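Posting this for the archive.
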Amino acid sequence: MLYSQLIGKTKKEAPKDEISKSAQLLIRGGFIQKEISGVYAFLPLGYKVLEKIIQVIREEMKAIGGQEILLGSLQNAETWKKTDRWDDNVVDVWFKTKFKNGQETGLAITHEEPLTQIMTQYIQSYKDLPIYAFQFQTKFRNEARPKGGLLRTREFIMKDLYTFDKTEKDLEVSYEKAKSAYIKIFDRLGIGDKTYVTFASGGFFSKYSHEFQTVSETGEDTIYINKEKKIGVNKEVYTDEVLRDIGLNRDSMQEVGAIEVGNIFKLGTKFSDALGLTYTNEAGNKKPVIMGSYGIGPARSMAAIVELLNDENGILWPENIAPFKLHLIGLNMEDAESEKKAVSLYEKLKKAGSEVLFDDRKDVTAGEKFADADLIGCPYRIVVSKKLGDKIEIKKRNEKESKVISEIELLSH
């Protein structure tokens, strides 16, 4: 990608109303742009990162047997009324409207109800179970106070997985599969060491649910962590009874701020009972399907990554989710020979299959190009200049020292 043609350029200052580090860096780096409060556009750099995060999640969902689907955003009010979640006194974040024929509809806040309704057509026998269905779909929530950039928005993509099982014992197997998959996901995203499996309220569904909380000073949640056992407890359920249940004591716990990047719930039969989702067991008896629900916010995960992986100059992207692996900087581009060399290397790197952002601008200084590269945060910076002759300079973003090597050495890697 030629930087001169890129939609979204770096900014020296972040908007004054953005207080989170991630929002400031993502806006300054040209990754996202605020449209209205709680709604952000993803520019090319940001969309590339988001797509890579989504792909990591997708791979781990498929690894446990997940089937990818895509449900609608516009919701059938009658379906939601069956579970009493259409009532604004029960769920107060709906965006609701009406079709021209007067029929009421809402923009999806989650998808337990519509998917359960769909599954009544495809689950009849114990032989049909288990089923794991997941999607990446836009959710809409009328948050009173969106804040923190991508950390709390009114419109966002969610990965939601739903499991359908015969028994509570089978649900436990599915639940543990999903929990293990989440641990792998956050490891692959580069924040696994700071992300804790955290006990939280199970709400109407079970005694406990689990959250995946990434320790961060900017997080809006308070959790208590045991570093040795890598377990957390949300403040809302931080009691002696809970600590006894999980074999911990207050002396071993540390209070920290955290960002919730994922959560998993055992739903039981709440939705299958309300919507008539049953199966016939081996004995010929009808039983309600046992369900689970598992969510991850890819954009919120992206923000959490930036909150943790940055320095005074900009973002430090992990290699597997960086917008580009290589940031090629051409200096002395007004010189025909220097420009030719830089363009030639860019074409060779692309041909070799490398992801390259090529700063081909002629009207900015070397210092400005280096500052932009640090802000954007690609893992490797490569410099071509008249001073280097037939050599090139390469530097890892998270290291201070650079190396001068030959073009052949670079291409051989």
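The two ends are 20 Å apart (CA to CA). The longest strand covers residues 254-268.
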